[in-house]
């Protein structure tokens, strides 16, 4: 028995398991990259009404949010996704063939919310194929290489193409500059100024990131997920309110019909009985 006790004492302690990943557990609305360069919420937190609605017994049923990444070949779309999902960066470039898919789960205000991230190929020959994956996107991320000015103009064209496949809804739009680590400070400032104007033109929220260094990658995806969650909840609440209003209207119409039947039924009975009133 003492021998067994000594063996047990020598066993390594069980590894501590984190209760949650702080990158994907959000309790507050993350800030924009720049409040001056976003068409979306500049508030420091989710709206009180949103929190109130989420605390009600009837919870909104949220579907996975479809996010598509568009832009030229080799601008860093895949690198962005891999840095956030796997916290890794591969310097050897491999072109995406067709489309890649990643699923990332978040917990936002205690509610499960998933991002379906569709990383589309940037080669022109795959454009017709990628178009099939653009439909029903809730978020469009147009990416460009900050070290290549021409990729910014191309990103605007890719974005326009993606929006043409989503005319039935109004997706969230982000314009994201990648490879920020390749620029000098002066180049970085100049490119941000140019890209900021482009973002305002296409009504997108602007970000600068680096997959190599990890600069602003987590903050960007947290912001994206939070805004998508907020939009999805608001849309679900509108559906619930419209359904409740329709049910109320139907109930009132049935009640009115019932009252009219009673009224005419009583009048008919009185006439048959010979009542003069």
TrEMBL record:
EC number: 3.6.5.2
Main subcellular location: Golgi
InterPro entries assigned: P-loop_NTPase (IPR027417), Rab (IPR050227), Small_GTP-bd (IPR005225), Small_GTPase (IPR001806)
Catalytic activity: GTP + H2O = GDP + phosphate + H(+)
Subcellular location: Golgi apparatus membrane
Organism domain of life: Eukaryota
One of the record's GO cellular component terms: Golgi membrane
Leading EC class: hydrolase
Reported cofactor(s): Mg(2+)
GO MF annotation terms: G protein activity; GTP binding; metal ion binding
UniProt entry keywords in alphabetical sequence: Golgi apparatus, GTP-binding, Hydrolase, Lipoprotein, Magnesium, Membrane, Metal-binding, Nucleotide-binding, Prenylation, Protein transport, Transport
Keyword Magnesium: yes
GO biological process, one term: protein transport
Annotated membrane topology: Lipid-anchor
Family: Belongs to the small GTPase superfamily. Rab family.
Function comment: The small GTPases Rab are key regulators of intracellular membrane trafficking, from the formation of transport vesicles to their fusion with membranes. Rabs cycle between an inactive GDP-bound form and an active GTP-bound form that is able to recruit to membranes different sets of downstream effectors directly responsible for vesicle formation, movement, tethering and fusion.
Protein name: Ras-related protein Rab-36
Gene name as annotated: LOC111595285
């Amino acid at each position: 028995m003492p021998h067994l006790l000594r063996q047990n004492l020598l066993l390594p302690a069980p590894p501590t398991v984190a209760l949650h990943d702080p990158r994907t557990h959000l309790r507050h609305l993350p800030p924009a990259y720049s409040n001056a360069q976003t068409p979306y919420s500049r508030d420091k937190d989710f709206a009180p009404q949103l929190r109130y609605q989420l605390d009600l017994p009837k919870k909104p049923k949220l579907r996975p949010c479809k996010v598509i990444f568009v832009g030229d070949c080799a601008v860093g779309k895949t690198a962005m996704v891999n840095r956030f999902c796997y916290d890794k960066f591969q310097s050897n470039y491999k072109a995406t063939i067709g489309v890649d898919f990643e699923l990332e789960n978040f917990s936002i205000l205690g509610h499960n919310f998933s991002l379906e991230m569709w990383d589309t190929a940037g080669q022109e020959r795959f454009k017709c194929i990628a178009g099939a994956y653009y439909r029903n996107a809730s978020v469009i991320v147009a990416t460009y290489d900050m070290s290549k000015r021409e990729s910014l103009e191309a990103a605007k064209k890719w974005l326009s193409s993606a929006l043409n496949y989503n005319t039935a809804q109004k997706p969230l739009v982000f314009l994201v500059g990648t490879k920020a680590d390749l620029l000098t400070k002066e180049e970085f400032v100049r490119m941000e100024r140019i890209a900021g104007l482009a973002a305002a033109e296409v009504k997108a929220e602007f970000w600068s990131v680096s997959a190599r260094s990890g600069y602003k990658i987590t903050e960007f995806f947290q912001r994206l997920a939070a805004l998508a969650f907020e939009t999805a909840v608001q849309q679900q609440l509108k559906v619930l309110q419209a359904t409740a209003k329709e049910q109320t209207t139907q109930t009132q119409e049935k009640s009115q019909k019932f009252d009219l039947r009673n009224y005419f039924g009583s009048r008919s009975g009185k006439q048959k009985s010979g009542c003069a009133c």
